[in-house]
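Exercise (ungraded).
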Amino acid sequence: MNKKTKIGLFGFGVVGQGLYNILSQTDHFNAEVLKICVKNRHKSRPLPSERFTYDFKEILDDPEINLVVEVISDAREAYHIVTHALRHGKNVVTANKKMVAQNLKELIALQEEFGVSLTYEASSCGSIPIIRTLEEYFDNEPLHSIAGIFNGSSNFILSKIYNENLPYEAALKQAQVLGFAEADPELDVSGMDALNKLCIITAHGFGLAIPPHHIFNSGINNLHALDMAYAKAKGSKIKLLAMAHKVNSEQLIALVIPVMVHPDEDLYTVENEFNAVLVDAMFAGKQLFKGKGAGGFPTGAAILSDVSANFYEYRYTYKKRNNLKHTGNRLKYNPDFDIQVYIRYPQHMNLTAFLPVKDIIETGSDHHQQYVVGKVNLRNLLEQRNTLKQEKVFMMATHTSL
Amino acid sequence: MNKKTKIGLFGFGVVGQGLYNILSQTDHFNAEVLKICVKNRHKSRPLPSERFTYDFKEILDDPEINLVVEVISDAREAYHIVTHALRHGKNVVTANKKMVAQNLKELIALQEEFGVSLTYEASSCGSIPIIRTLEEYFDNEPLHSIAGIFNGSSNFILSKIYNENLPYEAALKQAQVLGFAEADPELDVSGMDALNKLCIITAHGFGLAIPPHHIFNSGINNLHALDMAYAKAKGSKIKLLAMAHKVNSEQLIALVIPVMVHPDEDLYTVENEFNAVLVDAMFAGKQLFKGKGAGGFPTGAAILSDVSANFYEYRYTYKKRNNLKHTGNRLKYNPDFDIQVYIRYPQHMNLTAFLPVKDIIETGSDHHQQYVVGKVNLRNLLEQRNTLKQEKVFMMATHTSL
């Protein structure tokens, strides 16, 4: 155990610098950053230029470097770096949720083939140790559901709108200034970022690696004052939730959608850049994990923890996935399920012509907009998501429990 | 990894039966209970008598048994069983917080000497994976504080009194009927149970193994309607909290005390048998972990997780403790610290004659009782705890933050 972790770091943005600062501020940490690979030669950096390289091979071919830490934002480049590093026999720590979610099956296979480890605690819910907890603590315990606030930036925006009556654009701007938003904020507010995390968490919690585009996601980018007023009138806040729910032993559903959350629920008090994960397990019952979901230090802390675990030769074993593969367990992802939603759409649109709404309990309209509250099928939502997006439809589930 | 975990189980009460039921209800779990050691030959049991033994050597001497799981309530007997098992080269999983807290230094030394593992996730906060998280996730990150609701039974009682206006005795009775209370409820309501857990958690979170009797604890057993009315008038609930707080790089304080918790705090909404742990870490920031803290299944789930980890040869490495020992870190437990408290005591008692109270901001009295709100020194409280107990004094901190 007296080997030292020598890190090749890719990326030196908010998270990369957060990690670098943590490593230099924490005592007794047996790791150092040997080289930092960045893209832009002309950007001014807070460290001497000899610490940087612009050629990713300089890190992959350096035999002294025994751990690659990847914290760049571009998912395609990250995929390139991570898969090359794994094939070069190097362990990797990444924070790139999009890259991990989109390539999970391949990344699991590469780890097995090359006997290396890829960990990505920082990819999901910032500083909350949710992947490790699902891997190590709930590895043998069947779960009923996992649900939560997985995107700190959109939660920050929703808090500002609800608590301070800020307009959407002003709230988004604040999130960007504070460093909570992704480089492309569309990822946050569309629910895509939460969706990527949901895919990763679902793989560890239920053993199913579902590609993100198979799961319906709806964000907060079309939120109007009208919708917020509706939620407030019902005594609830709007929170953007990611949810995976075992309907029965053979059916798992998953989605990302704004939800009307009521004051007696744990998620009601989760504000600003905080994330929270609710795990409902067969024996442990309901667990809540809450922590900072965005920002350089919380994400850096999660990466630090992966770096530390790497020192102790920790790796994911994907126990739930292996159990599913090697036993007669029939659990499958299947979006054929009705959920009750509030849908607000433009006056000119004939919503029900392409999206069947059942059990309608409420409708309303003003000059430009109308809304309906009723049940829709998740599969229909998936099929019609482009139309819903084009028409700037806003949708929210009326309850946390499905 | 195809060896099977063969368990010798000590104790078959609520928790032992919970574990047994989980092991027989969960698929794909590579563990079975070979023998169960119990004390009372004449009690009727839900399993055939050949599964039971009354001689603890039958388990310790059985070479087939590779894991001892100890879930009896008597701490002295548990100590006897666990230390013998460790000396016999057997790994042990225990749920006995009192035994672990009182003998932690010796138990750590035994693990090192005999190359065996002792894990005790179930000893602290039921189903919340707090020890594992401190060991593995926060192993290299300095913490500012750990605080929380560590005793499900007393939290249940406080919830019933606050929310349903139940008298103390009736609430305690309900906790006992529901199986949330320890065999001896005095352990719960006096804060002793929470204190034992605090000692264990402090060892993993800060590296200091403090014997329980060095830490001040005050419980809810002397709670009057008067005290509850005072807290309600200030807009707060009373929660029994355990807290360890780093005052500076050289001083750690720790205590168990009822606290006035305000509506904007996370712990305000933690009700009934739920436990919660707040961790404030240097980089990750504030984290909340909330889950069921009492009952056979939640505790069984935590034991199950230890059993599963044992299969993967997991053991605690006490990293923070080793860091403290091998570096120049000067952090020490030192109760010389003032906290602001509400103290309610009998009319006849001359409180300040033996307990100095500074910065008094409020006093009051009725025919039999009087109260004072001011600052007291933790060291004085420790010295006077027998007198406080004899006089049935009730005390609560006015704020969560110290």
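Further reading is listed at the end of the chapter. For now, observe: Residues 296-311 of chain B form the longest helix (16 residues). Chain B has a mean pLDDT of 93.
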